[in-house]
Amino acid sequence: MFKSGVGFLALFGLGWWLLASSAFDGVVRLVEVAVGCAVTVGLMFAARRYLPASAGGPFPADRRRRFNQINGLQWLLIVAIAVVCARAGTPVLVPPLVAVVVGLHFLPLAAVFEQPRLRVPAALLIVAGGSGLAVWLMDGPDRTVRLVVGLIAALSLWGMALWTVTGAASHAGRGTEE
Fold this sequence. Notes:
- The protein is mainly alpha-helical.
- Helices cover 78% and strands 0% of the residues.
- The protein is built from six helices and no strands.
- Helix 2 packs parallel to helix 6 (142-173).
């Protein structure tokens, strides 16, 4: 289900979507949550259906070690952001700053996975974070910061997942395997 990272992209996309949906109340929020869950499940089923069995197999030890280092640093930075923002009384800055960190972490992962296209969600997540910071700097409401960051980040990750699946389906349709 986590072939070629589609499962991770889909689930983290859902997390960002839920952040965006927190800008709404009542029925609208429930509909947004349902839509996000449906997109996530759809992407995971599509990955299972269209990606080859060999997709996302185990990494060689050196790649796994580098992947773990990159992710470890990312999570340390996320924890530091959360702590510093909480102590500074600006929890609204957590999502934009985390989006920037997550975007930056995709840059070295593009090299580790030999997937230059991972630079696309990297750039879009950095834009998501920058957009949220811009809304905050213009004294926009916290809910708008969450909406902007969450929506751009979710669509970026889901878009990457869809790109991965459609690329595999296209190759399969032509009788080739990715």
